[in-house]
Amino acid sequence: MTPLLGRRARQRWLHLIIGGALLMPYFLVGTVIVGLYRPDVNVFNSPVNQLIAFAYALPMAAVTALVPLARPLSVAVARALCGLPPDRPLADGPARTRQARVRSAAWFTLHVGLGGVISGMTLALVPFAVGVMGLSFFAGLREPLSMYLPEGLGRTWVLALAPFAGIAMLVALTGCAAAAGALLANRAPVLLGPTPDDRLAAAERRAAELAVRNRLARELHDSVGHALSAVTLQAGAARRVLDSDPEFVRAALTAIEETTRRTVGELDTVLGLLRRDGNGAGDGAPDQPSGPGLDALDGLLAHCGLPVAYVAGGDPDGVPGAVSREAYRIVQEGLSNALRHGGRGGPVRLRITVHAAGELEIVLASPLPERPAAVRPGGGRGLRGIAERAVLLGGRTEAGEHDGHWRLTALLPLHTPAQEQR
């Protein structure tokens, strides 16, 4: 009896009765329409006219369910009373697209239509079945029906079978309610679930969130990671010559101070991006470049902890802000890699050239170590971050051994894809 009278079946029956209650205003309007062209007939005494009024009510219910807010209301009721399995998700939020509104209207129409039928059966069949079961036990119930009951042995059989007939009616009603509730539960994920447009919008939101996370991860990795690497190496070198070379120690401490001061400013910028992207508000446009650019390159090279031979070609000051900012980060990560893994065979060579063809070229070459550097757990994100920065601007990068050096090359277009579209 669990499928017919269990907790889930009772909840679905209640859901159907709610649908019948929601149908009543439309049904009453339908009776008014029937009464307009059949004024001589009492609609409530004619089953045929009631069916006609029911047929008028369903289209009216479908039209009113086309409003966007109909879907979240239907979803809330269906989740509470339909007993849906957890692996069948429903859509959240109003129906914004035409497809979603049509599906919501179809669900609402199915709900109130089945609900009206089951509610009518419940109201009519339950007292009738109880009356039939009582024919054998109460003479007062038999008197109004005496003219319809057979005489003699036939009446005896009718009265003997009446309780079983009443029970059969209730079982049939319960089965119809359970079947209608199961049908609603089966159709709910289809009609109230995410449409293809909803899934596409959700995928776009997830992609945007992932892009924000990756951007913040790159910012933190490049700024904080570079600063920690430089500070660690400079502090270690200063400790080794603390007693023998005070001037070097003083220079190392100055470099540490400048590096940490600059990194605090960059970290504040990254945290500002985090607050803006997390809360959807903040100062400036979402795509506005922030953080240091090529104009801050001299300070980076002076306190990076490595001797750098820098050559500039073209006009770096005319590089657009977004490209300048990403170029700075690429150089910063390249210097960080040279600081951690490079050899001591000479200075790092850096060349930044602005070509007339509209490209910014970055070439950074550092000496190879005498023996391979130990692989850090969780490392290896720097080159991937550099490649991601270049790809976002429509550029490309290359990294590998070349003429006894580890060389990093990046080509960045001066006009990003977004600017070209505008």
Brief overview:
This protein is an alpha+beta fold.
Question: Which SSEs are present, and which pair or pack?
Answer:
Blueprint (H helix, E strand, L loop, with lengths): L1 H4 L1 H31 L9 H18 L5 H12 L16 H36 L5 H4 L10 H39 L4 H45 L5 H34 L17 H6 L5 E6 L7 H21 L6 E7 L4 E9 L14 H11 L3 E7 L2 E9 L3 H5 L1
Parallel strand pairs: 1-2
Antiparallel strand pairs: 2-3, 3-5, 4-5
Mind explaining what this structure looks like?
- This protein is of the alpha+beta class.
- It has two domains: 2-194, no CATH class; 199-421, Heat Shock Protein 90 (2-Layer Sandwich).
- Helices cover 63% and strands 9% of the residues.
- Strands 1-2-3-5-4 form a five-stranded mixed β-sheet.
- Strand 1 (308-313), helix 11 (321-341) and strand 2 form a beta-alpha-beta unit.
- Helix 8 crosses helix 11 (321-341).
- It starts with a helix and ends with a helix.
- Main sheet: which strands, in order across? 1-2-3-5-4
Distance between the termini: 67 Å
- Here the CATH topology of the largest domain equals Heat Shock Protein 90
**Helix and strand element order:** HHHHHHHHHHEHEEHEEH
* Total strands: 5
Q: How many individual domains?
A: 2
Helix content: 55-70%
The CATH architecture category of the largest domain equals 2-Layer Sandwich
Radius of gyration, whole Å: 39 Å
Q: How much β-strand is present in the residues?
A: 5-15%
Total count of helical runs of at least 4 residues:
13
Q: Mean pLDDT, nearest integer?
A: 81
For CATH, the homologous superfamily of the largest domain is named as Histidine kinase-like ATPase, C-terminal domain
Structural class: alpha+beta
- Major β-sheet profile: 5 strands, mixed
Organism: Streptomyces poriferorum
GO molecular function: kinase activity
Catalytic activity: ATP + protein L-histidine = ADP + protein N-phospho-L-histidine
Transmembrane segments: 12-37, 49-70, 105-138, 158-185
